[in-house]
């Protein structure tokens, strides 16, 4: 399946044809995500200072677009209407094939939960950590296109039509829409197993530390009692009793730890 003429018009309107020179050629620029871009959102092989003609731009766009059309066909299970195919190609063209492949949108769609798809479009609205109005408008138009009946009129729908010359540049690197950690855990047995194992390890470590302290307590008390008669002598010599007591406690703890380690290895 190929992007329809209507989908192509929307793509060009979304991306805009920026940095057009007086002679009709186009110069590369940096999008809000600081990605080298040219013509209608093209980034592959684009370098700063690059200049192309209208014909070159159209050829580059057709070649680049084919990758995203193929990706949507390959990754989506089941049939798509033209409107839905167009909306997914427009989304993937902006966020990238890798992001689309890992998205909750694709997962829900392949599960048959098509009702969840429009809302998932609206999760891809951030660039550089900020919600960008241009992305919000674009995602809303894509979601509206997805939701249209299969037999839509040929003229652009009011909800999916945007300005031909956007005021702001369209970012070519969109922040990933990561699901909340609780949602990730719900989908991943590996994460749940890791959390349980970590909790068990923490409990074991705590029990081990508590046991060391319990075993060392009698030795600490005994050593401190033995030092009590010598406190006056240490004071005359200028020794720090707090430091000496601390060393006694540390020594007792180390002795218990060494004994426990020997038992564990045996």
Descriptive report:
This protein is mostly helical and 266 residues long. The protein has 2 domains: 5-177, Lysozyme; 189-265, no CATH class. Helices cover 59% and strands 5% of the residues. The chain has 11 helices and 6 strands. The strands form 3 sheets. It has a two-stranded antiparallel sheet with strand order 1-4. It is elongated.
Task: Note the main attributes of this structure.
single chain; 266 residues; mainly alpha; Lysozyme; 2 domains; two-stranded antiparallel ribbon; two-stranded antiparallel sheet; elongated
Strand count, sense and barrel status of the largest sheet are:
2 strands, antiparallel
Query: Mind telling me the CATH class of the largest domain?
Result: Mainly Alpha
Structure annotation, total helices: 11
Q: What topology, given as strand order, has the largest sheet?
A: 1-4
Number of DSSP E strands: 6
Shape: elongated
Summarize the amount of helix as a percent range: 55-70%
Question: What's the multimeric state?
Answer: single chain
Poorly predicted runs: 155-167, 180-187
Short description:
The protein has helices at residues 5-15, 54-75, 82-95, 97-102, 104-110, 117-121, 133-147, 181-187, 189-227, 231-236, 241-265, and strands spanning 26-27, 29-30, 36-37, 51-52, 126-127, 130-131. With 266 residues, the chain is mainly alpha-helical. It folds into two domains: 5-177, Lysozyme, CATH 1.10.530; 189-265, no CATH class.
